[in-house]
Every structure is written in structure tokens, then in C-alpha cells.
Amino acid sequence: MNITIRDLLDAGVHFGHQVRRYNPKAKKFVYDNRHGISIIDLEKTYAQLEKATAFVEDLVASGKDILFVGSKKQAQEIVREAANGCGMPYAASRWLGGTLTNFSTVRRSMDKYQKYQQWEADGTFDKMHNKEVAAIRREMVRMHRNFEGIANVREMPGAMFIIDTKNEAIAVQEARRLQIPLVALVDTNSDPTVIDHPVPGNDDSIKSIRIIVETIMDAVQAGLARRESPEAIQPRNVGNVISEPSTEEQVVPVSPRAASGEEVPQSYSSDNE
Fold first, then answer.
1. pTM greater than 0.85 (yes/no)
2. Is the pLDDT of residue 123 over 70?
3. DSSP string covering 85-103, please?
4. According to the model, what pLDDT value does residue 256 have?
5. In the chain, what are the domain boundaries?
6. What percentage of the chain carries pLDDT values higher than 70?
7. Which CATH number applies to 101-152?
């Protein structure tokens, strides 16, 4: 990976939710509770992220795709940019229930959406009645929201990468039912035990989401490079991902203080009551 624990600290990945929203199953990833906020252990975050990127890279190198999912406001644009940047499918506007478990039916709706797009491109709309075209365009707006990023998907993804498993609970349930591996950014209010490769971290901060998403994107791009030239890059091995710092300057404190040294505010969650 091209990031360090210091980068995770600067991005605020260690800020969890308020203690009253704490999920006991996330206990093993919590370093401490300060000022009513759960503080995530960044060494464990880094180790989990290292394992997740190795898994993603090997999966993509084997010829499979990974579906990016993140429909919360803070994640939408980041997910779009990352998925488009590495040519992977994504669901950023919303997760349509049954996208995976009822894929054959959803696929027919996607085909219909693509047919409308073809009509719009080849001038077929110009030959139709205005009232009929207006109705189709209204349907296309709804379809775009449902199928943005997945309209060209023809088969099940090899894995899914999810931002905020609590917000995307339906996507998680569908993936688990179909035994699709899950990689996810999991905050302290979520259950990491339902995820194959959980990455504990702040899923409300744009900076935190961006650094995790971009790290996964880098892994996807490395996997694509191996897919094209499998003899050029050998499979990755995950060993001791956390090594002892060799100098005093390399020691990164996992503390609830911001980089500026100011005390942590009462809450870093953007969730509303």
C-alpha cells in the first residue's frame, strides 16, 4: 500500500461513533473511548486494510470484478470517481432491493433502460409522439437512479466493496445470501462479523472515506495490471503488515487529539438522531 498509519490518522479514520451508538461486536477494533467517542485502533485498521487490498488485487487479477457500493451522501461522488477510474461497476445513487437476489428480473429492466438510451441516441424519439416521449424520459430518470453504474453488468460480481454496512444493510444481506465476498469500511456502530474483510474506520468523514476508497482502487488497478500481464507481477503475500518503527519520528500515536493538538469535539458522526 502507498499509505501509512500517519495518513490514516490525518484523515480522521480513527474517529468512531458516539459510545451510546457502539456495537459490542466492534470491540476488538476499538482502542479507547474518549470524550464520549469510540477511538478506533489504527494499527488494526492498517492490518485489515492490507489484507483487504491483497484480496481485492488477487480477485481482480483472476478476472473477476468488484462492485463498489456507497449511496450515502458523503460517499456517492467518491465511489463514482473511483469505480469509473478503474472500470468497475458501482451503485452510488441507491441500492435497488433484489439487484443480486432477483438479478434475472432486474437484468430485463436494465435491458429496457439501454433500449431507451439507444432510441435517444439514434433519433427514434424524434419519430414518436411528444407525450409518449415525455413518459419514457420520466421513466428513464427513475431507471438512471436505479441502474447508474450497473447497467452493463451481465453476471454476478466476484466481490463487493461497501461503504457503511449499516446504511447498505440490504446489499450486505443479498451478498451474504449469495455467498459473495464482502470488503467494507465498518464504523463502530456496525457489526464487522458479517463482513469477510472488514476495515474498521470512520464512515462519515469524506477524508476518511476517500483514503480507504482510493486505496482499494489502487488494489483494483494493480489487479487489472496483473490480469493483462500475469507473468509480470507475482501474487501478493500478506505477512507482518505492522512493523516496529525504526525511529522516534515514525511513531504515530493513536490518540483522540487532532493533528493540531486540539481536544476532540463531542461528536464526529454526521448521523442525525
1. no
2. yes
3. HHT--EE-S---TTTTTTH
4. 46
5. 5-100+156-233, 101-152
6. 84
7. 1.10.287
